[in-house]
Specification:
Keywords: Metal-binding, NAD, Oxidoreductase, Zinc. This protein is an alpha/beta fold. About 25% of the residues lie in helices and about 25% in strands. Strand 15 (about 305-315), helix 9 and strand 16 form a beta-alpha-beta unit.
Length: about 400
Amino acid sequence: MATADRSTPNVDGAPGGTHTADPHRETGRAAGDPATSAATTISALVARGAGRPPTVERVVIPAPGPGQVRVAIRAAGVCHSDLSMIDGTLAPAFPLVLGHEAAGIVTELGAGVDRLSGGERVVLNWSPACRACWHCTAGRPWFCETSGRPSAARGTTADGTPLHVTLGLGALAEEVVVSQHAVIPVPAAVPFEQAALLGCAVLTGVGAVRNTARVAAGESVVVIGLGGVGLSAVLAAREAGAAQIIAVDVAAAKGSLASAAGATDFLLSDESLVRAIRERTDGRGADHAFECVGRAKTIETAWRSVRRGGGVIVVGMGGRDDVVGLGALDVFHSGRVLRSSVYGAADPDRDVPALAEEVLAGTLDIRPLITHRLALAEAPSALDRLTRGEGARSVVSFPT
């Protein structure tokens, strides 16, 4: 999810950790020859302005520059943050290639690339850490001062209009050109559609449970909002050994998804929700509540759903003018803690490979998160489903 309402391009070539490339290479895949490198024309999902439906267009993306790589996208998830780019929640520059949750193959290297050799299966990272700012050196790369901007300039439309890409990536496209630090190698055995989700939904939801709340075995958990992030939080709570996992959504159809992810209870969100949660937690309220919607009303509901001394973790990104109202006496007397979890309080360079290993080991089954599989031409329908609150993750697949 995006964390700031800024439109300055991210800085390519920022320092980062190192990876061993060979175990992640695809057989028969190699980097492109820099001598023949050139701009390419591809298909991408482009938004022309806030409130305007995006369409698939032909666009031109540049050859990789120094410190950059070209990635052929094989799968891309459609995230609520993509919707936030066009519904007025964020203020990116237009025209804008949507998408930031994806996996693919490194096909070409720019000059000076030293973290990759070409052919690696990679997950895109929309928040590459600079490793030099105050937050990074303090061990909180998810707050990096150089990342998280809504859009960056890159390429042109077919008629030569300057083009921008979501969160420095623009991943709902056949190819992307990004900093070498915006890709994370993962084992070639991880399916592309699952690898894609590791870069946003899974990292965010799992990280909120493990890194921010640090849910312990035997505790009780409420998760409000069962999209890809919320269901990832349910998965992580189950893995942590939570004794009670109460999943909440406005759509009754989400009940089966919640159960598959490991929820012990499913509740529809209505005026009786807080009472229903307290009835299931001995009248006290839950130990932890994860708000995965990004609305003041649901944050306030999460607040009332936890016990005294409990914690509310805001994972959903809300609007600037949607104000949360809490009474000063309530804040003092309840002893509750309200905080956000930005990008799962994770270090993607460290945590994405670890999550990939969990997927391969079968200890983290993220397959239930994928409810719709579609082609790029059908991607606008995935945004429509997000608006209606239907399904979990829609994944766009690209032919090889």
